[in-house]
Amino acid sequence: MKIVIIGAGIGGASAGIALQRLGHEVVIYDRMRENKPVGAALSLWSNGVKVLNWLGLAEEVADLGGRMEDMAYYEGVTGEEMCRFSLEPVTALTGQRPYPVARADLQALLMETFGMENIHLSSTATGIDDDGETVTVTFADGSTDTADMVIGADGARSFVRDHVTGGGIEREYSGYTNFNGLVPANEAIGPVDQWTTYVGEGKRCAVMPVADDRFYFFVDIPQPSGVPYDRADGVAPLREAFGSWAPGVQALLDTIDPDVSLNRVEIWDITPFHTWVKGRVAILGDAAHNTSPDIGQGACSALEDSFALAIAVATNTLSVEDTLRRYEKSRTVRAGELVDRARKRAHETHAFDPAATEAWYESLRGTDGAGIIRGIVGNIEDSPVNLGVGTL
């Protein structure tokens, strides 16, 4: 069977590897000109790592991942430690260590594993025609390709999603802007093996370790959509928002080089919906469940899609349409629940309800981390990659 995938991101490339290894002819098209992903890094929790292990990339992913032993929260302005605890229970309960990874490194690994000769960049899909026997995709340059199945992994502003749903699925602003990037690891910010987060005033400033002695930093500022920003402003908005915060935060701001790594992203998501398939065309990843990054499950959920899709293709033989409907049924509820959990978390942490945020801050002071661990593991245990085992 020939399969065309639109989108070479984490979801599209991982799906391509899985379907290719089942013996299918797979071709990936992407509108990007080169590997320049949005966002500096991502959290690979145990469910996402397990999918990559299943694809045969366990050693490579471990090499890309940061060693994140502990988690700690600090009061943003004073720098006072609120709590600090080990993340080892996440590994013990789920059977796999989580890894923060640089997004470009992971995407490059997936694209190279799939085979760059079968990836066509600078290719923007503009038309899809499904005649019931084959699907023809038309691109902006007038070229076409025909396949037995088409998978849309083309992101939050998905063209393929509009074909599948008939349009009308709109992104919704999550209420805050995120700045992120990569900096050299620096003990003045936090221990190099720790997920360090400073919180206060509904804002968040955090670092996670990634490979090559680097920190992935991400900073959240609640604000309206559309606030003007010029790249020449560099870290000025961060200094305005965090100028009175703790020395560790100032050390981070001093370390950021805007010319090397600084991204500004308004955070949007999509209310869960359950139409992921139309005929021989299906969607996965952000095209199907665009989520805010508040529980770190966006990329992991896309990897779960790839796992579920490949299992459906390998085990169902009635028709392409039947296979895709079974994939859809296996994924929409689980993925939608993660979107809703991330929304709830964003509401709690960004002072959209100030009383709820203050209650959350109070819950952090002196905690042993058991409740936080339960929340992290709760996002992982129902993953399809766990084959119903959940936690041990």
Task: Describe, in plain words, how this protein is organized in 3D.
The radius of gyration is 21 Å and the shape is globular. The protein has 392 residues and is α/β, with parallel strands linked by helices. The chain starts with a strand and ends in a 12-residue tail after the last helix. The strands form four sheets. A seven-stranded mixed beta sheet has the order 5-4-13-14-15-12-16, with helices on both faces. A six-stranded mixed beta sheet has the order 7-2-1-11-18-17, with helices on both faces. Helix 1 (10-21) packs parallel to helix 10 and helix 10 (298-315) runs antiparallel to helix 11 (320-349). The chain contains 13 helices and 18 strands. The chain has a single domain (2-171, 269-386), classed as FAD/NAD(P)-binding domain.
Q: Which descriptors would you attach to this protein?
A:
392 residues, alpha/beta, FAD/NAD(P)-binding domain, 7-stranded mixed beta sheet, 6-stranded mixed beta sheet, globular, FAD-bd
What topology emerges from the helices and strands here?
Blueprint: E1 2-6, H1 10-21, E2 25-29, E3 41-44, H2 46-54, H3 58-64, E4 70-75, E5 81-86, H4 88-94, E6 99-102, H5 103-114, E7 119-120, E8 125-130, E9 135-139, E10 144-147, E11 149-152, H6 159-165, E12 172-184, E13 194-200, E14 203-210, E15 214-222, H7 236-242, H8 247-255, E16 263-269, E17 277-278, E18 281-283, H9 286-289, H10 298-315, H11 320-349, H12 354-364, H13 370-380
Parallel strand pairs: 1-2, 1-11, 2-7, 4-13, 11-18
Antiparallel strand pairs: 3-6, 4-5, 8-9, 9-10, 12-15, 12-16, 13-14, 14-15, 17-18
Helix pairs in contact: 1-5, 1-10, 2-10, 4-13, 10-11
Protein name: FAD-dependent urate hydroxylase
Domain FAD-binding: 2-342
Family: Belongs to the FAD-dependent urate hydroxylase family.
